[in-house]
Amino acid sequence: MSTPTSTRPVVPAGAEPVAAQPVPRRPARWLVGRAGRRSDDQPPRGIVSDAERRTPVVRVALRLTHAVVLVALVVVGLGPILWLVKASISTTQDTLRSPMALFPSGVDWANLATAWSTVHIDLHFANSMIIATGAWLVQLVVATTGGYALSVLRPRYGPILYWLVLSTLFVPAVVLLVPLYLTVLDPPLLGVSLINSFWAVWLPAGANAFNVLLTKRFFDNLPREIFEAARIDGAGPYRIFWSVLLPMSRPILGVVSVFAFIAAWKDFLWPLLVLPDPDVQPLSVRLPTLARSIELDVLLAALTISALIPMVLFLVFQRTFLRSAGLSGALKG
Amino acid sequence: MRTWVRRGGLSTLVFLLPLLVIFGVFSWLPIVRAALMSVQQTNLVTAPEFVGLENFESVLGDPLFWTAVQNTGLFALIALVFGYPLPLVLAVLMSEVRRFRGLFSAIAYLPVVVPPVVAVLMWKFFYDARPDGVFNTILGWVGLGPYQWLQSADTALPSLVLEATWAAAGGTVIIYLAALLGVPAELYDAADVDGASIWRKIWHVTLPQLRGVLLVTLILQIIGTSQVFLEPFLFTGGGPANSTLSVLLLIYNYAFGSSLGGDYGAATALSLMLAVFLAALSAVYFWLTRSWSTS
Amino acid sequence: MRSIRKTATAVSAALVVAGLLAACSSSSDDPAAGGKTAITVVSLKPGSEQAAFDAFENQVRQFEAANPDIDVTSQEYEWTGPTFTAQLAGGTLPTVFTVPFTDGKALIERGQLADLTEHVRGFGYADKFNATVLQSGQSDDGGIFGVPTAAYGVGLHYNRTLFAQAGLDPDKPPATWDEVRTYAKQIAERTGQAGYAQMTEENTGGWMLTSLTYALGGRMQTVNGDKVEATIDNPGAREALTRLRDMRWQDNSMGSNFLYDWGTINQEFAAGRIGMIMGGSDIYESLAQQNNINPADYGLSVLPLAPGASAGLLGGGTLAAVNIKATPEQQAAGAKWIDFYYMAKYLKQDAAELDARTLAESDQPVGLPELPVFDKATLDQYNEWIKPYVNVPLDQMRFFSDGIFDQDLAGEPTARTQEMYAVLDTVVQAVLTDQGADITTLLSTADAEVQAIIDRG
């Protein structure tokens, strides 16, 4: 189970049989199809046939709707973000009095610097990164080792264990909010509260059945012969894991990584509960507190910085992101 | 024992160790604990006391419980009205784009990447109810408003849904888009041979092919919206006058809302009720897909 | 053989990881690092300006210099219900923390505060406190578990600049609730800002409704021996809500935001977007430290009290307490910190001067009007000591300092106070956001709900 209210995709019961199909190893290039290029991956056609496309009415209508869709997407999807960027370099008074005007009293670049240093966005940004990276690592370790054991090593108790893991998918994260909190307060064996320690976010993030499901499925579809060959060559289970399995698993590791990173970056309620000390709080937890005290222009600058970082990451790794997003649909379907 | 080790039993266990420890401590144990706590009264200071179904009774007897259930149901309903057909229409239109589809997808998906807390704080400012507020200014250009947005019990909940839809719709669009582009071309070819119009193709080929994914997103959306927390917590704190109090916010309030120690029993009891509801939804979904795939 | 060795390596690697885990998680403070007693204390509210934190750290250093065997770490802190519960349950409260008067008794009953009686006796002022003020930090048998560090009365804060812009005299704050209403209307009409606003969220709505009800002669609870009766449906509360409704819906003088808590209303007020608010008399410190208020804007007056013996001024305050989980050494050190940081200044000239000088050097407010936690003479003496360092516009607060001692101070309701406030939040929000809200029904429903909460015990 991932941390409560994280936005990891939930796979309901029926996903099991459908999702048994192999995870697409070729990136779904058609999703991000490059401008004007028709690659082999692009589907030959959609709803509108080539013949229909050639008729002027359809052609104009298509062009027009696409223009409308693009404008709507830009206004609705991009608009708020552009406004935020504008507001982050405007003065408070401008933003309050005429929020839609462009810099009536000039550009105020200082907001960004103030947000970054004085209200310590840098510190909380670093915390967010540490939290996301740690959660990502823990999830990768649990998913790959667990998936490997269940899929390749196959102990006799494996199916029961797999069932136990999958069954946690049906327990909504919220049920665990309070008991998980109490567990973190007084974890078994450790004897020390994990409150205010990053481990309190990292470790529960690892209990993500969706990741185990994804990796096990992926490993299941790898050709057995490779492992057999490696074994005959004298490779032990560790060597096979490290030198054979992992190098072949890059696509699925990418997908799990995107899910893990996004979920950790977005999580709010759980870190809010277990990280009461402001010095270790990530951006998502710190920003609402700051919103109550710092001036509006600085707050909006802080929000801009916090929004731009993941957006830049998205634009750089667009392919992996969209593939994961589409994949979550394929798995769900 | 020796043979077990030689057969790799031990190394298998080593590989399973992270999974066993992490799931054991942070998933299985808390699940058991939740079940236990729901029939106990505990404030973490004195020893827990077995109270049977009292926690469930006190939750069911709390007028706020019914308010929260109503609000959450309404949230889910409005979210469906806003957020269900729109991404589908968008995806169908986008699937016919041949150039720059990447640009379309990227812009549609962009709001999903914005951290939810940032989105909520930003929208909270958009919803400023002064005539100078962002939305009121924009609507003022076409002679509408000013509206109360978060400041009225009638409009607060829809306002939360609007933001939530903005933040999530892009993800749904991408899922539909993936499904749309997977529709076999032969089906369209066959329809063309029959002389079907574009509309008929959408109605008789596209939508039936999307049936599975449509149902899944429907159920997923209901499951997701039943757990809405961030929006009411950050936008309104459940107000005005409890009009945006959600089930999850009520759970949070039970557990952490009073300064003198939480009612963890009531919190877990309500959590379990929500869990049963969600499990029932999953079961309905399972049954539906089963009966479809066999027919 | 090889694989067994490898297995052993893997197992030991796992153990190392587990050890790392334990090491990292136990990095929380060790009570006696290097022979010193380590304590954590609460500092200032989150988001306070750097100079304020600097001043605080200076005081920490002064304390450590005077007590070389104590090591103080500070933690920013703002008392809110949810975070406090989580910290209480999580055992992450600092050694020294503060709670409002209303929570003192219940925390003592639940055994969550350390007994400070001996320490306070040692400081020599256990018997000097104002008896009613001390009560909220005392157990039933008179032990001191919470030290009252500051007391406030609810006052009327107003923006002098907005008053002037609206054609009102900033030196004539409203003296009746009718005047509050007409002033608010005038401010709203002439400046376009909210004339008057009121807190409604996170239990502050109930707190302020109770203040207004007190001022209009009503009371929310009556105590009969052991039995507490909720009297929320009283004429004072009805009048309070009716006045709010009229200002909101007839005059439209309350602006456009009706979801305010303590922090957000202060923020808006300091930014010059609200004409008048009710609030504890001590908020100027936070307005200056957190919200950068322009001192020239600020005015403070007493809350208008309706004529008649029953009208009273709601007051409250802050208790400093020591974590029950602290070791005896830490408890002693914590008590010393309470004495040093919060209390000594009221009784010792050198302490008063040092405190005032340190704050003034960092441009932090010195000399705000306070209500006495000891007696009035002591407070007057203290104000005399710090006079050279006063850096707040005391003159703009004279209507409060001059008038407050003529008002009858009434304590907050005692039974399940915060939960009652939570119920009342909803009532106030309903009146301010729903034009058709029926005040009588709202009050009688709330009355029944609160009675049920009290009876549940």
TrEMBL record, chain A:
InterPro entries: MetI-like (IPR000515), MetI-like_sf (IPR035906). It holds the Pfam family BPD_transp_1. The keyword Membrane applies. Residues 9-21 have a biased composition (Low complexity). Keywords: Cell membrane, Membrane, Transmembrane, Transmembrane helix, Transport. CDD domains: TM_PBP2. Residues 1-21 are annotated as: Disordered. Residues 125-317 form the ABC transmembrane type-1 domain. The chain crosses the membrane at residues 64-85, 129-153, 160-182, 194-214, 240-265, 298-317. It is found in: Cell membrane. It is a multi-pass membrane protein. Belongs to the binding-protein-dependent transport system permease family. This is Carbohydrate ABC transporter permease. The lineage of its organism: Bacteria, Bacillati, Actinomycetota, Actinomycetes, Pseudonocardiales.
UniProtKB/TrEMBL annotation, chain B:
Residues 69-285 form the ABC transmembrane type-1 domain. CDD domains: TM_PBP2. The chain crosses the membrane at residues 12-31, 74-94, 106-127, 162-182, 202-220, 264-288. The keyword tRNA processing does not apply. SUPFAM superfamilies: MetI-like. Belongs to the binding-protein-dependent transport system permease family. This is Sugar ABC transporter permease. Keywords: Cell membrane, Membrane, Transmembrane, Transmembrane helix, Transport. InterPro entries: MetI-like, MetI-like_sf, UgpAE/MalFG_permease. The keyword tRNA processing does not apply. It is a multi-pass membrane protein. Its main location: membrane. It is found in: Cell membrane.
TrEMBL record, chain C:
Keywords: Signal. It holds the Pfam family SBP_bac_8. InterPro entries: Bact_solute-bd_prot1, SBP. Residues 1-28 form the signal peptide. It comes from the Bacteria. SUPFAM superfamilies: Periplasmic binding protein-like II (SSF53850). PANTHER family: ARABINOSE-BINDING PROTEIN-RELATED, SUGAR-BINDING LIPOPROTEIN. This is Extracellular solute-binding protein.
